Amino acid sequence: MAGPEGTSQNPSQNADLSAAERIAQEAREATLRTEAMFKQMTNQFSAHASAQEATLAKQSEKIDSLQAQLLAKSAPKKSDRVSNPEVKRIMQPMEKAQEALSQTKQTFEAHLDGTSPLAHLSEDQIENLRGQCDEGELALAGGIQFLMDWDSEGLEVASEMVLLREEASKDPAEVSLATRAKKSLAEKRKASEELAKPAKEQKSAFPQNPGRSSFFNRNRSPSPQPGWFHPPQPILVPSPMPAPLPNPVPSPIYQSQYLPPPITNPTGESLHKLADLTDAAEFEGFKDPPKAAAAKSSSKAPEPWLRHRLRRHVQFWRAFVTSSFVMSILLTGYKLPWISSPPLEPQLFRNHPSAFEHSDFVSEAVRTLKVTGTIMPVSEQPFLVSPLGVVPKAEDKLRLILDLRFLNQFLKITKFKYESIRMISDLCQPLDFLFTIDLKAGYHHIDIYEPHWKYLGFQWQGQFYVFTQLPFGLAPACYVFTMVMRQLTKSWRERGYRLVHYIDDFFFACRDSVEFARVQASVLADLAAAGLVVSLDKCQLSSSHVVKFLGFVVDTLFGQFRLTAIQKAKLSSAIQSCLRSPRAVPAKTVARVTGLIQSLSLVTGPISGLFSRFLHRALNSRSSWYSKVSLDSAALSELQFWQSRLSLFHSRDIWRKHSLLRVLYYDAGGNGWGGHLEIGSAKHEAHGPWEPHEVHGITSSTWRELSGLLRLLRAFKPLLSDCSVIARGDALNVFSILSKGGSAKDHLQSICLELFGFCSENRIELRPEWLPREQNARADYLSKIRDVDDFGLSPETFSSVSQLFGPFTVDRFASEHNKKLPCFNSFYWCPGPAAANAFTQDWGPPARNYCFPPPTLVAATIRHARACRARVTLVVLGWRSAPWWPLLCGSVASGRGFAPFVRGQLFFPSARGALVPGYWFNFESWDLDAAGLQSFDPELAALSVDLHDASLVGRAPGTYRLYAGPWRRYKDWCQKKGVSALPSNPLQVALYMMKLLRTANTPAPLKTFSGAVYFNHTSAGLPSPTNHPLVRMAREAARRIKIAGLNQKRPFLASQIRRLFDLWGSPSASLYQLMKLASVTLCYVSLFRYDDLVAIQWQHVKFVGSSHMEIFIPDSKTDQYRTGDTVFVARLGGPYCPVALIQRLLSVGRYHSSGPGSLIRATLPCVPVHRLKDNPPCYNTVLSWFKEAASLLGLDPKLYGTHSGRRGGATGAATNEVSDRLIKRHGRWRSDTAMGLYIRDKLSQKLAVSRNLGLQEDIPIAQLREFEREACLH
Questions:
Q1: DSSP per residue over 924-989, as a string?
Q2: Correct CATH for 1054-1250 of 2.30.29.30, 1.10.357.10, 1.10.3470.10, 1.10.443.10
C-alpha cells in the first residue's frame, strides 16, 4: 500500500506497531481518502456547471434567433408596400423563398461545429455551398428589386434598369438608374422610328398589364378567338438554375459556351420570334429593329476535327448503347453493306456541270472537308472515283454531294421510318417551352471502315481524294446516322424528355422554365460528352414558346404550325419564274415549284397534292432535267391558284378544335353506292343507284368509291356541316388518294376537286381512314340494295292529279331521281331530301301530302296518316288481292266502295302511259309491261335485276376499259348538243364520227367508238345504230380517207435465234443475258405476245422427262372466258434447246428460293452477280430487249418489236409445212385471217400460182389440150 510521499513501510514493521499507532495511521489514511473524494466531486460539479452554462447559452441564442424570426415575420414586408397586384402576386412567393433560404443558411452554419454529419466536408466544399447560398440570395434580392422597380417605374423602365444596373454600380456618381433607363428607352424608340419610316410609325411595346393588352384583344387572323385559348401571363423572373443531374455533369466551360443568358420574358420572346419568322400582320408591331451588321472577325473560328471523334468518346456511348450494329460503327467505322460483292473493275466518272458552275464553292467546301478530316488526299487514283455535284439547300444555300449512284446499286438499302414533325401534336401541350438543337456536319461524325475508303473517291482540280467519313449521297447514310442518333434519343426518352428527332435536328418541349433549364443543360452536356459538334448558329436555345423546326414555325403560345415568310417568298418567286414564259419552262424550275408546294403540306394538308397534279404531269413530259417543258392550261390554273391563294395559307392548329366528330362508313358497288353515319347511338343510312354510264365495267372501282363518298357527303349535308368527319372505307387506293391529295388521272382528279369544293363550302374537315372489308359490311350491303319499287306517275298524270287534289307541299315517298316536288322525303338519305324515313315526320296541317308508297308500305302509310290527322293524296296500285286493300274499302254491310276517310277517287287507265318505270328499269327493251308481263310482280322484278347483273359480267374487264373513254367523251358531246346518248340516233352517231375523223390519223378511233356505241346499246337491251347505213358509210369513209400504214414488224428467223444463243447463252452468260434470251426464244417457239410472256408463273412450268415442257398461260387476249391454256414445247437437245434454256434460267436465278412469281422478271443488270426483282418487266423494257437483239444481229431496230418472235415462229412453222390447224392452236388464234397476218409465205409458194398456169415451155401443147378436154374446160 502506498504511503505518504517520501515514506515507505515494510510489512514486517507493521506487526511491531502498537494499537495507538495503528489507530493514528488509519486516521491519516481516512483523511487522505476524504480529501481525494472531495477533490473529485469538486471537479465533477465544475464540469456540470460548465455544461449547464453552455446549454443555457445555446438556448439563449436559439431564443434570440426565434425572436428575430418572429420580429422579421411581424415586420412589414416589401410586398405589402406594392400597389400593382400582378407584381405582388409574383413577389410574395419570392419573399417566402428568401426567408427559407436564409433559414437554410443559418441551419447550415449551425451544423459546422465538428459533431454533425457535415463534419466530413472539406473547406472547399463548404465554401462552394456557401457561395451557392449567397448566389441564391443575390438572385432573389435582384428579382425583388426588379419587381419593386416595376411597381414604381413601370415594366419597360424596370427592364432597362436591369441592363444598366451593373454599369451604374461601377460609377456611383452616375445619375439614378430610373433616369438612365428612361433616357435609353427614348433613344431606342427614336432609332426604331427612323428605321421604320415610312412603314409603321407606331411600334407596340410589351404592355404593362398583359391581361389588358390591345394585342391579345385583337380579332385578326390567325390569333385564336376569345374563349378558346388565352395567352399566359408573362413570367418575369427566371427560377434559379437547379443543380445539374449527376450523370452526366456539364462542365462549366461547356455551359458558358452553349447556354444562353436567361430570358426574363418568354411570352415577349415568342412574340418577337413570330414577328421575325412569319409575315402575319398582327405580330408586325413586335418586330425588332434591323441590327447593324457585325464586323467580321479577322480570325475565323477553327473547324473541329471529325475523324474518329466519336471513337474517342466511346466510353460515354458504352453506358447506354444496346445495338451491336451501332457499337461496331463507333469502334471500327461503317462497313459498306454489299448485296453480294463490291464492284470488280475500277471506275472513273467526270464531275457534274453543277460543280464547275459553283467552282469557288466547291473549292472552299473541299478545303473545309480537308481541315475537318472528312476527306483525305491520296496520291493514286482510288478504285472508284465518283462525280461531285452541287444541290440547293434551304435558305438559298448550297450543299456539296458525292454522286454515288453507281456505288449505291451494289449496296443493300434498309427501309426505316423517319420521325415526323406531326408527332409534335401528340407530344406537346399548350404553353410548352421549346428549344431546338442542330448538329454541325452530322453525317461526317460517322467514320467509314478504312478498307472501304477506296470506294468513296473523287477528283477536284487534278487531286484525288477519298472520304473517310460518311458522305452525302451514299444511299444508306440517312439510315446509318439515324440509327446512331436513336441510341442517344432513347436514353433521353428514358429520362422523360419529350423530343422529336429528324436526322441531325432535335426538337425538345418542356413544361416549365425549371424543366427547360434542366433538360437543356443535360442535353447539351450529353452532346459534348458524346463528341457531337453543335451548330450554335442554327440552335434555338432561348426560353420561348416559338421555334423554327424543319422549315415550319412551331407555336405553343397560340397552338399553331405556321409557314415562314421565307417559304412563301420562295414559292412566289418560283411561280413568277414559270409564268414569265409558260411555253418553255426549265424542268428544274417546275420541279422546284412542285417541291415547294409539297413542302407546305403540314399546313395546307391534301391541298398541296390536289392542286399540283397537272404540274407533275407537265414535269413528267420532260426529256431530261436540262430540257424545257410546256405548261398547259390546267397547269397554269394551278400556278394561278397558288399565286392568288398563297397568302391565305399561314397556319394550322397543332391540336384540333372540332368538338363535333362524325364517323361515316362508305362503300360503292357495281350498281349503286351506300353508307351510314353514326351520331352517338343514332345511325343514319343512305343509298343511291348509278346511272347507266356509271355502272361496273364502264367506270373504274376507284371512281365509283370516290363518287359514292361525294354523294354520301351531299346526302348527309345537314348533319355534317361544321364537323370533323372520319370517312371509313375498305378501298385502300381511295384512302391513299384522299390522304395525299388528288390523283394523276383526270377523271379521279375531277372528283377530288369536287370533294374539296364541297368540304370547303360546308366547313367539313374530312379525315380518311381505311378499315378491312369485313368491318364495313353494313355499307357494303347498302351499296348493293336494289330499289325495285322506284317507279312513279308520269309527269302528265301527276299534273292531272295535282290539278284535281293539289297543290301539294311535300312528296313523302321519293328519291332524287323520281321526286315530283322540291320538298320530298326518302326512305334512305340521298342528296336533296328534307328528311329520311317519312314515318318520322309529322304529316299534319299545314302540310299537303302526296304519297305514292311501295305496295308493302301502304298499310303503314294509312296508319301514320290517320295518327297525324293529315290530308293525304294516296296513289296505290289496283291490287284487289293485296292484304291492305280492305283498309281502303267500306264495310261489307253498307256496300260502300271506299272507307269513310276517303273523300275522292280517281282511277287511272291501264295504259302504260300513266306510270314510268323505276331507275333500275329505265331501258325500253327491259320494260316488263311492253313484253306483256306484270311489271310489279316481285319475282319478275327480281329476275329482271339478275338479268341486268348478267349483262354487266358478260364482257371481259378489258372490254369495259377499252370502251369507257370513248363513250364518256361521246356522252359529254351529246350533253352539250342537248341530245340523248342512250339511245342514240344514227345521224348523231355518224356526225360524231365525222368529228373524230377531223383529228384522227388512222381509222382506229372510229372503230373503237363504233364498238363502244354497239356495246352500250346492246347492254341496255336497245338496238344499236351502228348497223345503220349512215354509220356504215362513215366507217367506210374513214377506211378510205385515213389509210393506216402497215406497222407489222419483221420476224426473227431461226438462224437469227441461233445467233442470239451464241451471243447471250454462252457458259459465262449472266442472269440478265439469260433473261433476255429466254424472252425472245419463248416468243419464237411458243408464239407468245407480251401479255402472255409476263403472265407465266415459273411454278406453272412443268418439265415432262426428256420429252417436252408444258407452259400454262392463265389468261390470254383470245381466252374470252379465262379458262387458261397450255403450250407444249419439245425438248430438242443441243445448244439451242429452249427447254434446257428455261431450266438453266431457273437454276441461275435461284427461283426456288424466292417463292412463287413470274418467270420473266426485271433484274439489276449493273451488278456482277445479278439478282431478280419481284415484278415482271414493263412493256418498254421487253421491247428494248428485242431491239437490242436486232442491233446485235446487224438489223434495223425500228423494224423489229415484241411481235417479231411470234411472227417468226409462225412463219417458220408454215414454211416447214406444219398444218394450219396446229399453228392456229399453238398460237391461240381464233380465226384464219388473224393467223394469216403473222405468216410470211416462201417465195416459191408465192410463185407457185404463176408457175402452174400452163405457160411453161417444157409442157407440150398436146398434153395441155388433153388436160383441158379431161377437165371439161372447153
A1: GGG-TTTTTS-TT-HHHHHHHHHHHHHHHHSS-HHHHHHHHHHHHHHHHHHHHHT--SSS--HHHH
A2: 1.10.443.10
In this structure, what is the dihedral angle of CA atoms 1155, 1158, 1162, 1165, given to the nearest 10 degrees?
Answer: 60
Residue 1103 phi/psi, 5° resolution? -100, 120
Strand blocks (E) in 1105-1214: 1108-1113, 1125-1130
Rounded CA separation 1149/1145 (Å): 6
Of the chain, the end-to-end C-alpha distance in Å amounts to 187
Residue 119, C-alpha cell as written in the block: 463534419
* Residues 730-783: tens digit of each pLDDT: 888 888 888 877 787 878 888 888 888 888 888 888 888 888 888 888 888 888
- Cα 147 from Cα 84, distance rounded (Å): 10
Phi then psi for 347, rounded to 5 degrees? -135, 145
Q: What distances in angstroms separate CA 781 from CA 675, 715, 941, one per listed residue?
A: 9, 17, 19
Distance CA 787, CA 370 (A): 78
Alpha-carbon gap, residue 864 to 813, rounded angstroms: 13
Q: Using N-to-C axis directions, what is the helix angle for 565-580 and 633-645, rounded to 10°?
A: 150
- For the packed helices 986-999 and 957-977, what is the interaxial angle rounded to 10 degrees? 100
Contact 603, 649 (CB under 8 A): yes
3-state secondary structure of 853: coil
pTM above 0.85, yes or no: no
CA pseudo-torsion sign 1035, 1040, 1042, 1045: positive
What are the two backbone dihedrals, phi and then psi, of residue 1240, each rounded to the nearest 5 degrees? -105, 120
The set of residues, in sequence order, having a beta carbon less than 8 Å from that of 860 and lying 6+ positions away, is: 839, 853
In this prediction, residue 448 carries a pLDDT of 93
Contact 1179, 1202 (CB under 8 A): yes
Helical pair 732-740 and 701-715, crossing angle rounded to 10 deg: 70
Distance (Å, whole) CA 765 – CA 657: 11
Q: What are phi and psi of 661, to 5 degrees?
A: -120, 125
Q: Which grid cell is 730?
A: 375498305
pLDDT recorded at residue 181: 59
Rounded to an integer, the average pLDDT of 148-174 is 62
CA pair distance 886, 573, nearest whole angstrom: 79
Lookup: cell for 597 = 408546294
> Any idea of the CA torsion for 669, 674, 679, 681, to the nearest 10 degrees?
-80
Q: How many CB atoms lie within 10 A of CB 959?
A: 15
How many helices (H) and strands (E) the chain has is answered by 46, 32
Neighbours of 126 (CB within 10 A): 14
**Residue 1045: CB atoms within 10 Å:** 7
Q: Is the pLDDT of residue 247 over 80?
A: no
Contacts of 1231 (CB under 8 A, 6+ apart): none
> For residue range 425-448, what is the model confidence (pLDDT) as tens digits?
888 888 889 999 999 888 899 999
| Residue 729 CB neighbours (<10 A) | 26
CA pair distance 833, 826, nearest whole angstrom: 6
pLDDT reported for residue 1256: 62
CATH for the stretch 309-555: 3.30.70.270
The verdict on domain 661-783 having CATH code 3.30.420.10 is yes
User: Which CATH number fits the domain 957-1042, given the four candidates 3.30.1340.30, 1.10.150.130, 1.10.357.10, 2.40.128.110?
Assistant: 1.10.150.130
Strand duo 1101-1104 + 1108-1113: pairing: antiparallel
pLDDT tens profile 386-400: 999 888 765 567 888
